[in-house]
Amino acid sequence: MNFFSTHKKTLPPLAVVGLLALGLQPVSANSVFSTDSTVTLTFNSITSSSSNTSGLSISGLFEIGVPTNDPFAQPPATLGFGNTFTGDGQSSYSYTGAALPLTVNAGDSFIQSFSASGGSGNGTINSYYQSYGTFDFANNSASDTYTINFSLDYSLDAFATGSASQSQASIDYSDDLGFIFGSDQATANAQNNTHSTKNPGALTFNMVLNPGDSNIFYADIALTGSAASTSPVPLPATLWLFLSAVIGLRGYKSRAIQAHS
Q: Taking 90 as the threshold, does the pLDDT of residue 245 lie above it?
């Protein structure tokens, strides 16, 4: 009888430790991010000092970061421009748009859309996608002055959720002559700002080109994101030693009681 009563006394702390051990098994948590951006370039009006715009040329396109393998990245970069991952970390990227046509007229509007997303359930992903927009304006006439009124309309969207993730969609725009410049960004993180958007409405600019002048308008889009799985923090080693001591002490007392019974 003493044998069974002794083990009944030692079962509670053993059960507690067993439950703690089960509860402290590493459990990965999913983290995901997504980013989106849409850029619209609209030519509101094109005027000439002589009502002749045949000497004006406007051309442009977005150069997109393409899938690469960076031999210096650890591990090697994949899935796009500047991506690294471990475990099941992954990301994807999409782009919709086209280069400007050979002839641009007043009222023409061109839309470019970019999106990236990624996540990890048992690993990490660090993602960086860059798109470079370059639009060339040239006055090839000998005597005409051209005034081009155009608008830049953009939206930025960033989303991040899970245990450890963050994302950012950003835009930088400028021209070669320094009359146009600006930047904006939407930033999200899983801790306190899971969703962020920016959409300021159309920004309007005038570009004046005298005979023989040229100018370049830049609009660069960057989509970045990172995600990592996390696990609960284990109990400190000192606490495990303390629990072991408690169990040993209970066993020692039980054997002492058994010896005197």
A: no
All residues at 6 or more sequence positions from 132 whose CB lies less than 8 Å from its CB, including other chains: 62, 63, 218, 220
Give the span between the Cα atoms of 140 and 55, in whole angstroms.
Answer: 5
Question: What is the span of the domain harbouring residue 242?
Answer: 2-25+235-260
Q: Who's near 175: CB < 8 A, 6+ residues apart?
A: 181, 207, 215, 216, 217, 218
Are 95 and 64 a contacting pair, CB within 8 Å? yes
Q: Look-up: residue for tokens 């609209």?
A: 42
CA angle 227, 229, 234 (to 5 degrees): 145
The dihedrals phi and psi of 129, each to the nearest 5 degrees, come to -125, 130
pLDDT digits (tens, 9 = 90+) for 180-194: 999 999 999 998 999
Phi, psi angles (nearest 5°) of residue 3: -60, -50
For residue 248, how many other CB atoms are within 10 A of its CB? 12
pTM for the whole structure: 0.73
Q: What is the pLDDT confidence band of residue 231, given thresholds at 50, 70 and 90?
A: low
Nearest to 220 by CA among 172, 156, 183, 152: 172
* pLDDT single digits (tens) 191-212: 899 999 999 999 999 999 999 9
- Supply the pLDDT for residue 101: 84
247 and 119 in a common domain: no
Number of domains in the chain: 2
The yes-or-no verdict on residue 57 having pLDDT over 90 is yes
One domain for residues 195 and 252: no
Assess whether 112 and 55 both reside in one domain.
Answer: yes
Q: For residues 12 and 17, give the distance between their C-alpha atoms in angstroms, rounded to a whole number.
A: 9
